[in-house]
Structures are given as structure tokens and as C-alpha cells.
């Protein structure tokens, strides 16, 4: 499901339409929905709420400038692979991509990317790989702010390690800072996340926000989109 703009932007467009055309709010919303290919605003909202992207292409279409995205899965189910696939798709669209990883070395990351794409070029100027132990919100901001453009994609591998060093700010503060950064710059931030082991004892097939492993406090409402693999 690819909309021309996020829902909140479409709502703003509908409000402007109401003023300029002197029509009801309902009529304005429906006009916007019809321009997006849906019969009514209620149908568009229902489809958007129910939509669950599964492939890298679908996820890239699902995320917009300024989004803070949680990409979570149990161990071994391919969350890092999916994040790298999304990065490859992004740079294939001539967008800047950044991969900050606590988990892998640069050579390991390159090997994973080559396994996903035989034609992957490690020297592609659109992709920046950083596997420093010093990664933090401020580190990411410092490393990207001079080259970042709207719709650039930043992947953090992974969320729970951002504050593993005591001298770094709390996880809450770092995610708040990165959310502000995403809004200011129009970049997209994807955080790879672990799932709590207790989920494996449940009968559910798919985890939810309650299953995110949080060794330290974090308000998960900071993320405006969540994808479970």
C-alpha cells in the first residue's frame, strides 16, 4: 500500500482543501482518498491500519521521511537481513544509506550484503558502514549531519545496545534525540530490535510491542511504525 504522503500529511491536505473549496470536511477527506485510489476516507484509513508490509520493497514504500521505525524479530528470523535488504533497495533508488552496527564488523557486514546482492559494490558512495564501539545518538548525528538529505535511510543495529556503556545517555534520551533529528532532517531511522525470550513460551505466532526486550526503560510510542518479522 503506497500512499503519496503519510496519513497525517493527507489530513493536512484535506483541511486545506476544505478551506479552498468551501466543502465539508467529510467531502474533503473523501476527495483526498479518491485521489489515492480509494472510494472513501474511511476505506483508506481501514486499509492503512490493516496493512502489514512483508518484503523489503513493501517496507521501503511504507516508510516516509521523518519516520522512526522499529524492526523486530526473534533470533535467527532475519531482522538484520531484512534491514540490509531495505538498505540495498534504498541505495538502488539513489538514496543515501547508513548502517551503524554494534553486532558486526565492517567485513562481516560487507559479506552479508554480497550474499544478498552479487553485484554489491563495497565502495558505493551512497552506502556508509560504521561498526564503531562508540555508536550513540550523538555519534550518529555527528557522522551523518553534513551529508544527510531528505529520505536518507539510517539503520541502527541494534536498539538495546545504544546505552550499554554507562557513560552514554539513557536509551530514552538517545531515541528522543534521534526522533528530533529525523523530524528536522527528513531522514528515516530504522532500529533493529530484539524480542524478549518470554515470547517463545507463548502460543502466538507474531510478537507485539509488549514483547520488545527492554533492559532499560524506553517509551515505545516514540516509534511511529513497528514491523515484526
TrEMBL record:
Gene Ontology CC: one annotated term: cytosol
Ranges for domain SF4 helicase: 57-113, 150-213
GO term, biological process aspect, one: DNA replication
SUPFAM superfamilies: P-loop containing nucleoside triphosphate hydrolases
Keyword entries, A-Z: ATP-binding, Helicase, Hydrolase, Nucleotide-binding
InterPro entries, per the entry: DNA_helicase_DnaB-like_C, P-loop_NTPase
KW ATP-binding (keyword) present: yes
Pfam families per record: DnaB_C
Signal peptide annotation: none
Record carries keyword ATP-binding: yes
GO molecular function list: ATP binding; DNA helicase activity
Domain of life: Bacteria
PANTHER family for the chain: REPLICATIVE DNA HELICASE, REPLICATIVE DNA HELICASE DNAB
Name this polypeptide is given: DNA helicase
UniProt source species: OCS116 cluster bacterium
Lineage summary: Bacteria, Pseudomonadati, Pseudomonadota, Alphaproteobacteria, OCS116 cluster
Amino acid at each position: 500500500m503506497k500512499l503519496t504522503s503519510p496519513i497525517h500529511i493527507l489530513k493536512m491536505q484535506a483541511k486545506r482543501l476544505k478551506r479552498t473549496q468551501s466543502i465539508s470536511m467529510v467531502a474533503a477527506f473523501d476527495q483526498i482518498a479518491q485521489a489515492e485510489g480509494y472510494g472513501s476516507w474511511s476505506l483508506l484509513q481501514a486499509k492503512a491500519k490493516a496493512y502489514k508490509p512483508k518484503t523489503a520493497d513493501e517496507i521501503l514504500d511504507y516508510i516516509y521521511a521523518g519516520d522512526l521505525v522499529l524492526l523486530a524479530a526473534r533470533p535467527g528470523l532475519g531482522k538484520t537481513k531484512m534491514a540490509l535488504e531495505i538498505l540495498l533497495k534504498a541505495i538502488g533508488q539513489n538514496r543515501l544509506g547508513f548502517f551503524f552496527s554494534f553486532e558486526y564488523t565492517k567485513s562481516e557486514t560487507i559479506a552479508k550484503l554480497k550474499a544478498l546482492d552479487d553485484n554489491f559494490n563495497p565502495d558505493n558512495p551512497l552506502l556508509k558502514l560504521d561498526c564503531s564501539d562508540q555508536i550513540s545518538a550523538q555519534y550518529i548525528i555527528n557522522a551523518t549531519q553534513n551529508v544527510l538529505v531528505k529520505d536518507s535511510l539510517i539503520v541502527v543495529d541494534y536498539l538495546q545496545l545504544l546505552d550499554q556503556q554507562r557513560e552514554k545517555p539513557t536509551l530514552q534520551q538517545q531515541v528522543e534525540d534521534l526522533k528530533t533529528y529525523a523530524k528536522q532532517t527528513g531522514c528515516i531511522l530504522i532500529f533493529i530490535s530484539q524480542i524478549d525470550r518470554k515470547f517463545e513460551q507463548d502460543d502466538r505466532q507474531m510478537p507485539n510491542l509488549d514483547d520488545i526486550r527492554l533492559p532499560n526503560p524506553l517509551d515505545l510510542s516514540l516509534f511511529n511504525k513497528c514491523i515484526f518479522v
